Predict the structure.
Amino acid sequence: MTDFADVSRDQCAIAGVGSTDFSSRSGRSVLTLATQACLAALSDAGLDPADVDGIVRCDIDQVLHNDLASSLGTTNLRYWSTVGTGGGAPCGMVAQAVAAIQSGQAKTVVVFRALNGRSGIRFGQPMSADDRVGGRGSYDEFFVPYGVQVPGHMFSMMAQRHMAEYGTTQEQLGQIAVTCRQRANDNPNAQMSARTMTMDDYLSSRLVSSPLRLFDYCLETDGACAVVVTSTERARDLPNPPALIRAVAQGTVADEQPGYFLSSLLRESLTTWPSAPTAKTLYERAGCGPQDIDVAQIYDCFTITTLIQLEDYGFCATGEGGPFAASGALDLTGSLPINTAGGHLSEGYIHGLTHIVEGVRQIRGTAVSQVERAETCLVTSGVPNATSAMILRKDT
């Protein structure tokens, strides 16, 4: 049987990227935001809406594929797909685009995410009663009476567990937040571009859900991002250098719990996530390992999500994420520069699509905070539920 890696490695590429401005009040509908980001990505790729024959969306995006096709003026839509769950979807969305192209179902696939995450639906708020009680396989109703209602509550418990097991400190989490803020300060398009932050600022910020402080939380953002996926052969004829998709992977753990989010607390371990088995699959498909990654865009809805993924993706041993983060390894000149546009913590929270856009810019050599000789970039998607990841590579 032919291995997936044998037929997919480097065969597809991201040829165009686009985004809107990031703000706390866009004044636009999510469809308008999605359309603007997709048009920007198509322009970047030197393509027209008429070239688009595939669209991939996130399962909780309010914009449907037919809405976007109509808004763009696409006339030959032959493939569409919806990928979940939530923040775990973005790299999996690119994987769907790759599968569509390699199977001959589409030639030019737009992958997008649009949300009014501050002025509209705020993902840090409790879900509706209909979503969390009784239906859709949710276990959330068992947590609500004990005060566990929102993502911040769940991740704070995971952070507490990591601290108890491994001695992780607030300063180590803070180093992740400060590092991302430094990158955002160099990025004129970041929400936090003009707002500097020191470790003292971080430590004096208010506790939201102990041990997580205000700056351990991602931003709430209005905006959209999009990328254009096509075959590598075709991408090489387009205006910008292609970012080759070396490998993509999706994965979960053996003891995956039903429900949308909070049920992850029922697992045997709270300090290793689906990112660990997904990393194994990804590296096998890519034919490389963590030692080959030059720069990483690591999903950072909270600082603890970044810290645990550093361990799960093999950049340090289990339990050593804190010392690794505090060592300077994550800085622009460190051994693993991360979230070079500022990440969810300081650039903007577009559910992981910002990380893909920045990964492409690093591979092209056009990022504002460009990593020297960046030839491979790891991009990860949301945790701790089922997740996805990919490795982008420079065309040589």
In short: The domain at 4-121+217-394 is CATH 3.40.47.10 (Peroxisomal Thiolase; Chain A, domain 1). The chain has one domain: 4-121+217-394. The radius of gyration is 20 Å.
